[in-house]
Specification:
Oligomer: single chain
Number of helices: 22
Largest sheet: 6 strands, parallel
Radius of gyration: 26 Å
Helix content: 40-55%
Number of strands: 18
Bound molecules: thiamine diphosphate
Structural class: alpha/beta
Length: 580
Amino acid sequence: MTHTEDLTRYIANFIDELVKSGVTDVVISPGSRSTPLAMTVVEHPELKEWIIIDERSAAFFALGIAKQTNRAVALICTSGTAAANYYPAVVEATYSRVPLVVLTADRPHELRDVGAPQAIDQIDLYGNYPKWFHEMALPESSPQMLNYSRSCASKAISTAQMEPAGPVHLNFPLREPLVPDFTLGNLWDSPKENTYHPVFNGPKRVAEEMLGHIFKKLQAKKRGVIVCGPQIDSKLGNGLTQLAEAWGLPILADPLSQIRSGSHKKDNIIEGYDAFLRDKSIRETLKPDFIIRFGAMPVSKAYLFYVQENDDIPQFVVENNEGYRDPSGIDSAFIYANPILFCEDAVKLQPNLPNIERYWLTIWQQMNQITKSYLSAPSQAAITEGEAVRGLLEVIPEENQLYVGNSMAIRDVDTFFTTTTKKIKVLANRGANGIDGMVSSALGAAATTENHVTLLLGDLSFFHDLNGLLAAKHYEINITILLINNNGGGIFSFLPQAKDGKHFEALFGTPVDIEFKSAIEMYNGTYRLAENEESLKTFLKESYNTGGLSVIEVKTDRTKNSEWHRKLWNDIHEEILKNR
Ligand SMILES: Cc1ncc(C[n+]2csc(CCOP(=O)(O)OP(=O)(O)O)c2C)c(N)n1
């Protein structure tokens, strides 16, 4: 067996096993050491490869695909700092539970720690973030080693996808010569039709006896609250609303809960809570005596206060499989069950809660209604950030998707995304709340769906990943980007340091003073500047009817923006308190 045959068969078996395990998309960045991996992916008839030069963007692009498809996405790069550039997306994948399979090429062992070029320590490069790290053996093509290669690929995919999903890192030591020989026969031959290690697993369900124990304690309660934080299952809406109706409870629905939109009933859904729970006296009026949360912790800080101020009541978190996602510091109980099955079981075992106060739900609904009437007030001459988000949500077509940036973008979506029968999937990178990689994540999501994607983000987030726009040009991806340009970090104007005249602009405001138009045109994008809500809506509609990269910019003022938000919240609180 020659070196080239060993290399070719070992890598071919690995890549073919990725396909057998369900991988469809691989994101590759250029480099020499990764030659066998990259060429074999392109050679494999069933894989779609995406070539993204900047590894930081590449990893976020892969993250976007994985979020869109709910399938593991493989990443391939060369040795050295290339691999280090994946770090932010690996972190995000860990916290937002996204299956990424990172395949880094490396120097063979004799070229490590000896000053060889482009050689860094890649062992456990991403620390504790990956669910599994494995240093692959050097390529060999004995039957045992080809089985080993398949076994590693199969385990990598199932580990990444197993809930809670997350990243996996395999490091490949590779010796030169690196070019595989695709004239060899039977490269994709596997002794097995399915994946090497089939895994039989099923959704979790809590035993009836245990559930009965929980529900017994709820029977005497008068004021319960259901909460749905960020989660991706669009089918949860039905189960949750049935439970809320049976028990007579409000559902506080996060903008990333996927339940503010869709065809399920929404009478119990309260989407304006972030605005009115900001007021302490309103929070006191709404003191609950138990809370059940599904999904991750909501975006809303007002909700966090509400949870913390009620640390004397039972609070439950329903998690799919494992995890302790409750940053509030209270002694919440964790229920490990499939959320849809939990709702079904709950309605069956506990068809109603007899002691819930008669007007409990109505009070929430009235406050929500008042909030919504303020949010829909006619816009002023110069468009505000909130109105831009409102305009977007008004015209975004059925079945479209929204990728939301961090900072004020997600907060404005929290405020202005009122319930709708339109089916709108909303994605965001809330694992680590980074402002990096947003353009690439949204492009990855847009490249792998039939539906149009709109990315909403601030100017610093856009600037952070301008490199990512190359993918839009290269792959002619259809995407609308709504860029809220307040020339710097608008969110910081809400913090106490905004009053510090000496340090604020340089350290927090950080204006970049960039004309984004030229950058967009550099990537063959269409640029439009919207000056009011009506023109914004017109431009958005135009962008939905034409393909390619479309960027619509709205220019705002950071100081005025924070004043506008504060006034809006105050007006809502006053009106609600007046009606109490
Ligand atoms: C990678 C990364 N760096 C820094 C931060 C801290 N940070 C949070 S919000 C923000 C400003 C974001 O500005 P922009 O995207 O323009 O949105 P705006 O605040 O104006 O809504 C910064 C720097 C972060 N979250 N992630």
